[in-house]
Amino acid sequence: MGLDDKIKNKAQEASGKIKESVGDATNNEDLQAEGVKDQAAAKTKQAGEAVKDAAKDVRDDFSK
Digits of tens for pLDDT over the chain (64 positions)? Predict the structure, then answer.
């Protein structure tokens, strides 16, 4: 994954945190749940990126 994807995922996570906070403050359960969902999706994508980065590092180590 490129830097653009990493930035988008961090933005999605931050947006999710904001939605969750606003949902809590306004007692809007739908918005709160949407925020939690956005955060979970972003964290899943970030975990996938970490796996890909680790695999690339291993591949690079073997090619040396």
Answer: 578 988 999 999 999 999 999 999 999 999 999 999 999 999 999 999 889 888 988 888 887 7
Domain positions in the chain are 3-62
Torsion of CA 44, 45, 51, 57, to 10 degrees: -150
Total-model pTM: 0.80
How many angstroms separate the CA atoms of 5 and 8, rounded?
5
Integer CA distances (angstroms), 7 to 11, 16, 22, 30, 32, in order: 6, 14, 22, 26, 23
